[in-house]
Write a structure and sequence with these properties.
Oligomer: heterodimer
Radius of gyration of chain A: 29 Å
CATH superfamily of the largest domain in chain A: P-loop containing nucleotide triphosphate hydrolases
Distance between the termini of chain B: 24 Å
Helix content of chain A: 10-25%
Helix content of chain B: over 70%
Number of helices of chain B: 13
Number of helices of chain A: 8
Mean pLDDT of chain A: 84
Order of helices and strands of chain A: EHEEHEEHHHEHEHEEHEEEEEEEEE
Structural class of chain A: alpha+beta
Mean pLDDT of chain B: 89
Radius of gyration of chain B: 19 Å
Largest interface: A-B, 31 and 26 residues
Shape of chain B: globular
Low-confidence stretches of chain A: none
Number of strands of chain B: 0
Number of strands of chain A: 18
CATH architecture of the largest domain in chain A: 3-Layer(aba) Sandwich
Amino acid sequence: MSQRAKDLDEALAISVEGVHKDFVLPHEKRDSLKSAFTSVFKEHKKGGEIQHALDDISFEIKKGEFFGIVGRNGSGKSTLLKMLAGIYEPTKGQVRTRGRIMPFIELGVGFNPELSGRDNVYMNGAMLGFSRKEIEKRYDKIVEFAELERFMDQKLKNYSSGMQVRLAFAVATQAEADILLVDEVLAVGDADFQAKCFSFFKQLKRDKKTVIFVTHSMDAVREYCDRAILIENSKLKMSGSAERVATAYSRLFFEEEARNQKTRQNRWGNNKAVINEVKVTPSPVEDTDKSISLKVTFTANEDLENPVVGFMIKNQAAQPILGTNTDIERAKVGAVKAGDVRTVTWKIPHIFARGLYYVDPTIIEYGTAAPYDWWEEATSFVVHKEKVTPYLVNPGLTTQVKKS
Amino acid sequence: MILLRELVITDFKLRYQGSFLGYLWSLLRPLALFVILYTVFVRFLKFGGDIPHYPVYLLLGIIIWNYFAEVTSTGVGSVVGRGDLLRKINFPKYVIVLAGSFSALINLAINLIVVFIFMLWNGVDFRLTMLWAPLLIVELFTFALALAFLLSALFVRLRDINYVWEVIMQGAFYATPIIYPISNIPEKWAKWLMLNPMAQIVQDLRYAVVTPHTLTISDIYHSSWIRMVPIATVVLLMIGSSYYFKKRSGRFAEEI
């Protein structure tokens, strides 16, 4: 470890410089003697496709920083974490670290189901670099933290998965490392246990430990991290304050989703009038936008007496948020001749919470409500919000605190 | 070091877990093999007629061979078998192979106690040459470990190695004078056989511990240079395979 820390600035815990990681994905299974022989005879051709898991990544982490690594599945963030842990070697570039690293990449490394809980604590402890004495000193604390006093002499295979995780986490919390690598451990365990984890993280933050935290939870990034980086398609897309990176990540995620999500596009009606276009502007909707404009254009196929044009907006969970039509709004479309094109525009105050929304435009007959054209999820739009609430709507509020 | 110790302890605890006789099996297995080979080769086929204390001589050979077989054949799959660990944490990879080697060494020690009891029972004379035994065990340990390093690193890429090694071991068992006295072999062949470090180790150990009436490499070759061939093989193999293991070990995590 000290070798790796050579000429690393005192204030830094980790420095990553121009790191590339390529994996060779074999086209066919060639890890047998037969293929080794045939490849000897057929010149030495390196078969397989090269996958660039990481492409020119550089960043630095200061001592005592709580540093987030975010990115979607398959973006390369776990590879990066394994690189920091020294499990993988970079193909190009270098990773330098200072201090004892404790990987939380997976809990319970070295756990063996055939051994008792007690033996596993020693084994796992050894994997994390504890001597037997050090474990002995901490043993009671570990058992207490895991709340498994009565089970320590039972074999691990008789533990529930929750108990195993608790035990593993309890050992890990005892680690006296300078740098902790944490990968999504918070996703496991019940609410009680998660609360424990979070209080442990708060403790780490107070102790000024260097923590590198890989997660999908932007709330956790906002709450704990000082700085963060965003990895996308094996590249470093952004680095900066936790807030900025978390926002960029959410944006990335929703936009991609909006692009990929196949709208159901259920559509029915008697075709006496047909919707040509539905347009939402601006898209995506930002915090600075005060209102959203929704434009529905349709063509009449027959002479129609005052068709009623309307819409409904649903959120991603398919909960209706709002909607109206020209009849309710007392904005008559009036008589329309066959072949006529009309556009109806609504200006909607921006009350939306962060997320993805679908628009269902409709044209119905005045009076009978028989649908001419009813188009479910004709289009969708994305709303970015800096302030996130878990509620249906999120209009910009003003909050004032006064001494009284 | 801590890790090595824990791995050896774990390995030992798990070895005979769930079996009724437990650790006794590490004694019973070689003894059972001894009884079979003794019955077939000594009683029926009349091998080893003029060698004194032939049963002890045979038992020692079997135990040494068993150690060698255990280290190498469990060694082949040791790195791959710990793949889950390698992918999760960074630690010195040689510890895995070393741990297997040490846990077999503990077994060997227990078995050698049995050999010792047999020696007392058979009335073997205690001679000063016995002091060579620890050095020969070191040579044995090094040879087996070197092969384990090489095989385990090769196995990560070439998954046929374990089968190949199984076949080689079958052949090597007969190519090493374990069940027959080397004196039964025409000298021309014996010369070749004795260059095998295992043959040299087994014969030297028997000479040192059991009886001076057996042929060692020094009896077969009179040149002291050729006498050094097996030892040189062991040393070079250790250097070569640890270099290869070290070079490859950085990529074990991604290749397993």
